[in-house]
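Q: I'm building a small set of examples for a reading group on sequence design. Run inverse folding on the following structure and report the sequence directly after it, with nothing in between.
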């Protein structure tokens, strides 16, 4: 998988990939158009953050690379990679319950609050990890 050298890109399957956790200094790209929406990405070793049309989508601490991000009303799926364990925060629907799976193993259910954000910890440092967050 590896880092996304262009910071963000559209994939042939309609998903997006973004993030470069190898950068010593923060890099950002504004106004990236994908399927009618405008994206903004900020990334470096310390943090990776993605916004769509000015709204929060994804953040990781420390920085990560994400491939195949597919988001819809039912939830979000993606592959994530980084040099060490990371705290991921994903923007979802307000006050909804989601089932979380990491590498196809169910790890439980969580509810979002009014802000719609859901945070999980993911063990990284080796192969890319598949994350699936689906509305119950």
């Amino acid at each position: 998988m590896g880092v996304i050298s262009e910071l963000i890109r559209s994939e042939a399957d309609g998903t997006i990939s973004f993030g470069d956790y190898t950068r010593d200094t923060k890099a950002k790209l504004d106004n990236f158009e994908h399927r009618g929406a405008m994206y903004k990405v900020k990334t470096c070793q310390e943090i990776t953050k993605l916004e769509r049309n000015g709204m929060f989508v994804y953040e990781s601490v420390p920085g990560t690379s994400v491939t195949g991000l597919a988001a819809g009303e039912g939830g979000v799926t993606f592959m994530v990679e980084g040099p060490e364990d990371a705290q991921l925060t994903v923007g979802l629907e307000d006050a909804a319950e989601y089932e979380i799976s990491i590498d196809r193993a169910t790890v439980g259910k969580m509810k979002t609050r009014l802000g719609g954000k859901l945070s999980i910890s993911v063990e990284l440092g080796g192969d890319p990890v598949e994350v699936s967050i689906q509305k119950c």
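The chain has one domain: 8-135.
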